[in-house]
Design a protein that fits this description.
The structure is a single chain. This protein is an alpha+beta fold and 442 residues long. 56% of the residues lie in helices and 19% in strands. It folds into four domains: 1-21 and 55-80, no CATH class; 84-182, 2-Layer Sandwich (Beta-Lactamase), CATH 3.30.450.20; 191-363, Beta-Lactamase, CATH 3.30.450; 364-441. The protein has 14 helices and eleven strands. A hairpin with a 5-residue loop joins strand 4 (156-167) and strand 5 (173-182). Helix 6 packs antiparallel against helix 7. It starts with 9 loop residues before the first helix and ends with a helix.
C-alpha cells in the first residue's frame, strides 16, 4: 500500500501563515517602544527559535516518515499475507478485508466492504457458519471451523476459518476478526488418502474371502458380491461373471439380471456383444450408455431387453497373457466412472484372474502328481512281475536246449507258461505304464 507523503505542501504553509497573521493582528504590539538593543535581542531570540523550530520540524518529519514506513510494512503484511483477513460486525457484515480474501473470492476489496459474509458461504454450510459466528460472539477464546466458500462465478473452495471476538469497553463483543486459510488442496489430499485406504481395505476384505474359495465359480461369486456391497463404487445391483471355454464365454455367476438377459447371455461367442468384445480384445470396456459402445449389427440389444438405459463396466480376466473370462457390472446411465473407481475394479479383476489361474495351476499340478503316482506304481509292479517271468522264461529256454529228447514237451511247457501267465501281455502292459510315467515327468 503506497501512502502519499504530506511534506512541504505550499497550500498548507500559506494557510498556516494567514492564520498566524490573523492571530497577530488581534494582539497589541510594543515594537515601537523597544530600544535598539532590545530589538537586536528579540531578533536573536527569533533566529534561535527559528532554528529550534526547523530542528523540531526535521525531527517530526523523520518520525512521520518512520511511521509511514511502518504503516506501509503493516499494510504489506496485511494485504499480501497468504491468508485472508476479515473484520466483521456483530450481524456478520464485512467491515475490512485484505487483498488475499478479495482474490480468493474473485472480487474487488472495496466491493466486499458492507457485504454480509454469509453471502459467500456455500448453502450446504450455512448452519456451520451461523453456529461459528454465534460461538465467536459469546466465547472468551477463539473458534475454528472448516466450511466451503463460494467465489464469484460459483466455484466452491474449502477454507479453515479461525475467529476471535473483539470486546468493547463495556465487555460486550460487537466485532470479530477472522483468518481464512484456503485448505482446498489439503482437503483433496485427505480425501484421496481416505479413498485409497477405503480401496485397500476393500481389496483386503475380498482377498480374505477369496482365499477360502475352492473353485473358479466360487471366486467369481465372492468377487461380484463384494463389489456390489461397496456403496461408494456406485454399481447397480446387477452383475455377471463369465469363464472362457474354447471360443465361447459361459456365464457361471450372475446377480439380479432380468430373465431375458440372464438367458440370452448364457453363452456368448468371442467378439459378440460387449462382454465378447472385451474377452476378444483383452481390454476393459467402460461406457456411460451401453448403446455408445455396442456396434449397430450386434445382437446386444436383444440381450438388453428388460433393462432400462444403463452403463457398462466390463473387465477381462487376464492371467499370464491368457484370457480366462470377464467380469461385467452395471452403472446408472450417464455415470462416467472416475479413475479411482476404475482402478479399483481393475485391481479386482486382476485379483480374481490370479486366484482362478492359481486354482487351474493347482488342479493341473494335482493331476500331474496323480499320473506320476501311477507311473511309480507301474515301475514297482514291473519289478515284482518281470523278475519271476524272466526266470521262468529262461528256465524253459534252458530245458529246450539241454533236453533235446523232450523238446516237444518243453515247447508245450513254454507255451503253457505264456498262455497261463500271460508273460508277453503283462510285459507289454508294464512297458506302456512306464512310458506313461516318463511322458508325464517330461
Amino acid at each position: 500500500m503506497n501512502v502519499q507523503k504530506n511534506r512541504n505542501r505550499p497550500d498548507d504553509f500559506a494557510e498556516l501563515r494567514r492564520r498566524a497573521e490573523a492571530a497577530l493582528r488581534g494582539r497589541e504590539s510594543d515594537a515601537d517602544t523597544l530600544s535598539a538593543q532590545q530589538v537586536r535581542r528579540q531578533i536573536h531570540e527569533l533566529e534561535v527559535h527559528q532554528i529550534e523550530l526547523e530542528m523540531q520540524n526535521e525531527e517530526l518529519r523523520r518520525a512521520q516518515e518512520e511511521l509511514e514506513a511502518a504503516r506501509d510494512r503493516y499494510a504489506d503484511f496485511y494485504d499480501l499475507a497468504p491468508v485472508g483477513y476479515l473484520a466483521v460486525s456483530e450481524n456478520g457484515q464485512i467491515l475490512e478485508a485484505n487483498l488475499t480474501i478479495a482474490r480468493l473470492l474473485g472480487m474487488e476489496r472495496g466491493v466486499l466492504r458492507g457485504q454480509l459474509l454469509s453471502r459467500f458461504i456455500a448453502s450446504e454450510d450455512q448452519d456451520v457458519y451461523y453456529k461459528h459466528r454465534r460461538a465467536v460472539l459469546v466465547a472468551a477464546h477463539g473458534q475454528t471451523c472448516e466450511i466451503r466458500m463460494v467465489a464469484r462465478g460459483g466455484t466452491p473452495f474449502y477454507v479453515r476459518m479461525q475467529s476471535i471476538g473483539i470486546a468493547s469497553s463495556d465487555g460486550t463483543v460487537t466485532t470479530w476478526r477472522t483468518v481464512i486459510s484456503d485448505v482446498t488442496e489439503q482437503k483433496r489430499i485427505t480425501q484421496e488418502l481416505s479413498r485409497t485406504l477405503e480401496q485397500q481395505n476393500g481389496l483386503n476384505a475380498m482377498l480374505y474371502s477369496i482365499q477360502a474359495s475352492q473353485t473358479p465359480v466360487q471366486v467369481l461369486e465372492v468377487a461380484i458380491d463384494h463389489v456390489l456391497q461397496l456403496s461408494w463404487l456406485g454399481m447397480q445391483a446387477s452383475a455377471a461373471a463369465f469363464l472362457l471355454r474354447g471360443q465361447q464365454l459361459h456365464k457361471v455367476a450372475s446377480r439380479n439380471l432380468p430373465q431375458a438377459v440372464d438367458q440370452g447371455c448364457a453363452q456368448i461367442a468371442l467378439g459378440q456383444c460387449l462382454c465378447g468384445r472385451a474377452a476378444q480384445t483383452g481390454e476393459p470396456i467402460i461406457c456411460a450408455h451401453a448403446e455408445e459402445c455396442a456396434p449397430e449389427d450386434d445382437e446386444w440389444h436383444y440381450h438388453a431387453r428388460g433393462m432400462g438405459d444403463h452403463g457398462h463396466v466390463i473387465f477381462p480376466l487376464k492371467w499370464q497373457s491368457q484370457i480366462l473370462g470377464v467380469l461385467c457390472f452395471y452403472v446408472s446411465a450417464g455415470d462416467k466412472l472416475d479413475d479411482h473407481r476404475s482402478d479399483f475394479l481393475g485391481a479386482v479383476a486382476s485379483i480374481v484372474a490370479t486366484a482362478i489361474g492359481r486354482l487351474h495351476y493347482q488342479s493341473q499340478l494335482a493331476q500331474s502328481e496323480r499320473l506320476s503316482s501311477v507311473g511309480l506304481l507301474a515301475a514297482g509292479v514291473a519289478h515284482e512281475i518281470n523278475n519271476p517271468l524272466a526266470l521262468t522264461s529262461t528256465t524253459v529256454e534252458w530245458l529246450s536246449e539241454e533236453l533235446p529228447p523232450i523238446l516237444e514237451q518243453s515247447r508245450i511247457l513254454r507255451q503253457r507258461v505264456i498262455d497261463e501267465f500271460g508273460a508277453e501281455r503283462v510285459s507289454t502292459l508294464l512297458s506302456d505304464l512306464a512310458d506313461l510315467r516318463n511322458d508325464e515327468l517330461l
